[in-house]
Amino acid sequence: MRAVILAAGLGWRLGSGFPPKSLFEFGGESLLLRHLSILSWCGVRDIVVGTGYREHLVNAELGRYRGVARVRTVFNPDFQEGNIVTLWRLAEALDCGDDVIVMDADVLYDFRLLERLLRSDQSSCLLFDRDYEPGEEPVKVCIRAGRVVEFGKIVDPAVQYDYQGESVGFFKLAAGVARRLRETVEHFIQHGQREALYEEAIRALLLHDDAVTIGYEEVTGLPWTEIDFHADLDRARRDVVPRLAALPTKKDHDAA
Fold this sequence. Notes:
The protein is an alpha/beta fold and 256 residues long.
């Protein structure tokens, strides 16, 4: 299995002058190195990081990694465009003939979220949390009769659903679904939709590709937050960090 981490963005909502969001530290460790540690602990040893904004800082941070996973980077020179361009630049990494984890880099989370994704009996799935603050920013996941019926920041009022939650921004994709995502992203780029969010390509697969099935796992109650605004930084340090479980030792992991 391979992990693809999207870490190219400007983080413009935090204002100018900030480092890449993946380099913010919580509990003495950057988001980026936390990703690598958790992925490695979960058994994912092939990791590709999509870089862009201040890539030299991201590369320097990766130089501090001392784990066992193989980590490489793919640079997106057009990082000021939509993040779908970063996923397009990662096309080769995405379509690798193996299962793929696609992850936003700007998420602080308890390792149990990723563990739940990887241990899911669904070959392709996403994570969502029912406990979220409504608004324009969260990517919503709408469920009806056990299926995802809407996915995106804006929900069509005509869509009927049983309940709704927020996407964490982590996706497990079987090899064939990862290939279809690459093809869908290519279609967006060919049609000039370079300002799109990559979630729009995932929505196209979820709702309009009959050959693709993407399920879901609920992580309500587990601590996590996306880092978009200064309020998110405050919330992360105040509410999320104290609730994060420590990674078990390898012995404990193997026993589980």
